[in-house]
């Protein structure tokens, strides 16, 4: 049977991956609320190990968070002998990772992506390249079919932007992937803001923030017309006697003439198991939250504290309800990086070893890119202040990001910031035994009312091996994680909403574009 996650009230948090957030100001807001100390919380140790009523506990949904690059969120670890990130250009890396995640019953492999290097630091790409700070990078879609071929339960969520390609091309690619994976595909919807990415594509500078979301909304509505409204379920009806494979009368031509997109076409791919891939999205601005409430099924929001999540989630849920959606059908996820040892002491020793390989400059390249602050202009050991700065707001936001949860640090310098961000990026990192890490995950689920996590890594596949071999068994012991299903063949959407729900829910915005009900204006 499939592992279906029942709808529950939810709330969460998430850190940035290059194109997941759509504007530097959004990233700064994330920084303010999300930077957290890496030390385990002793108050929670051993507090969440009661096995009573396990069947009644909400099951955590875990996605593995990776990127087809070196130096994802922990630049410098490529120097660590145990790290295999430099082998990501070898298909075997992805095949082995998929098998590992399948073994652990992980819900999905979530793949970040970006469309340009980080050139804020020193105003050029040199240190991005030299320090392997998310460079080089291959296309995340290419290994998907190979991974799908060696798994039956693991799903795949791919980041793709609405800013750089026509909807028709994206529709064709994701329909194809949904076929090849038998319905195990999700799309992380992003709008792009990075100037380097627009230069790489050969386009002018990014359009204004709110207009990007307006464009993305139209983009999605074009896709719904193609995915949901172009083909009837029975359009393919092979008739060998009459030499007819499909009925053209049951494949509708889509006519769309909007502000941003103009097309007249039939969708070229027949309906895939889900038709529309499972839709992920991250956005904390007003426009981003409205977009999420309208379109997203899985949502990432950010906070340094799980208790501060509820008001943010309630706002999105309220908007979703006003649009006629079941607010509990929106699933919320937080990024979470575990550093696990057999004991707390062993985990702390592992952290010390990891810190030996962290790249100071690589960390500054990423932080500079995320915030828009060129930290190369400030000596490594000079205290960072907003005084006399042309970018006072950005600098103060960056400082607030760290001081809000790390008041014990006497002086914030670029070096200290790089050390802080060099392990797991700027998201929460939990260091400890399987029990300690599980305690922290359970605390976030309970206090933040989350649905699950995107689990990031420091070294790969080491962090994911620890997740599968140490953390997941502890979560299962507590009744917080599903057992591995005896049968596969279920879609990503079924694994979230329940068996039989492969397509969009009836209350989803895209459902009104389904073939049997859609009427073009």
TrEMBL record:
**Residue span, Luciferase-like domain:** 79-448
**GO molecular-function annotation terms?**
monooxygenase activity; oxidoreductase activity, acting on paired donors, with incorporation or reduction of molecular oxygen
Q: From the UniProt record, list the coiled-coil ranges.
A: none
Q: Which InterPro entries match?
A: Diverse_substr_monoxygenases, Luciferase-like_dom, Luciferase-like_sf, NTA_MOA
Domain of life (superkingdom): Eukaryota
Q: Which family does it belong to?
A: Belongs to the NtaA/SnaA/DszA monooxygenase family.
Q: What is this protein called?
A: Luciferase-like domain-containing protein
Q: Which organism is it from?
A: Fusarium oxysporum Fo47
């Amino acid at each position: 049977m499939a592992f279906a996650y029942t709808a529950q009230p939810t709330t969460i948090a998430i850190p940035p991956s290059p194109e997941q957030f759509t504007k530097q100001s959004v990233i700064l807001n994330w920084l303010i609320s999300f930077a957290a100390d890496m030390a385990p919380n002793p108050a929670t140790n051993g507090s969440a190990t009661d096995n009573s009523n396990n069947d009644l506990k909400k099951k955590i949904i875990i996605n593995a968070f990776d990127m087809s690059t070196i130096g994802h969120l922990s630049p410098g670890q490529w120097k660590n002998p145990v790290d295999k990130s430099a082998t990501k250009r070898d298909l075997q890396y992805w095949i082995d990772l998929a098998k590992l995640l399948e073994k652990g019953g992980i819900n999905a492999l979530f793949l970040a992506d970006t469309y340009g290097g980080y050139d804020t630091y020193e105003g050029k790409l040199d240190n991005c390249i030299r320090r392997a700070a998310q460079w080089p990078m291959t296309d995340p879609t290419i290994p998907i079919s190979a991974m799908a071929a060696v798994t039956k339960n693991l799903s795949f969520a791919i980041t793709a932007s609405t800013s750089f390609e026509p909807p028709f091309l994206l529709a064709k690619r994701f329909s194809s992937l949904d076929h090849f994976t038998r319905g195990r595909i999700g799309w992380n919807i992003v709008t792009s803001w990075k100037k380097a990415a627009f230069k790489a594509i050969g386009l002018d500078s990014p359009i204004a923030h709110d207009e990007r979301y307006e464009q993305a909304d139209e983009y999605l509505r074009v896709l719904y017309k193609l995915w949901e409204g172009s083909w009837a379920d029975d359009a393919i009806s092979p008739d060998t006697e009459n030499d007819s494979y499909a009925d053209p009368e049951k494949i509708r031509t889509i006519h769309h003439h909007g502000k941003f997109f103009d097309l007249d076409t039939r969708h070229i791919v027949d309906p895939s198991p889900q038709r529309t891939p499972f839709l992920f999205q991250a956005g904390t601005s007003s426009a981003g939250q409205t977009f999420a409430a309208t379109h997203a099924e899985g949502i990432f929001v950010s906070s340094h504290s799980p208790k501060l999540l509820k008001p943010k989630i309630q706002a999105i849920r309220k908007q979703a309800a006003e649009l006629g959606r079941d607010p509990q059908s929106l699933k919320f996820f937080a990024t979470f990086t575990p550093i696990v040892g057999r004991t707390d002491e062993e985990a702390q020793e592992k952290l010390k070893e990891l810190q030996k390989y962290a790249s100071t400059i690589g960390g500054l390249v990423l932080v500079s890119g995320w915030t828009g602050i060129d930290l190369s202009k400030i000596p490594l050991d000079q205290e960072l202040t907003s005084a006399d700065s042309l970018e006072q707001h950005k600098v103060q936001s960056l400082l607030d990001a760290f001081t809000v949860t790390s008041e014990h640090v006497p002086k914030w310098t670029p070096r200290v910031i790089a050390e802080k961000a060099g392990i797991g990026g700027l998201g929460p990192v939990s260091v400890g035994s399987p029990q300690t890490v599980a305690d922290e995950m359970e605390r976030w689920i309970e206090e933040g009312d989350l649905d699950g996590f995107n689990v990031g890594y420091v070294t790969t596949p080491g962090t994911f091996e620890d997740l599968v071999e140490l953390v997941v068994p502890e979560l299962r012991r507590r009744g917080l994680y599903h057992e591995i299903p005896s049968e596969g063949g279920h879609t990503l959407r079924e694994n979230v909403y329940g068996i039989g729900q492969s397509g969009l829910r009836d209350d989803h915005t895209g459902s009104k574009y389904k073939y049997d009900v859609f009427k073009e204006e």
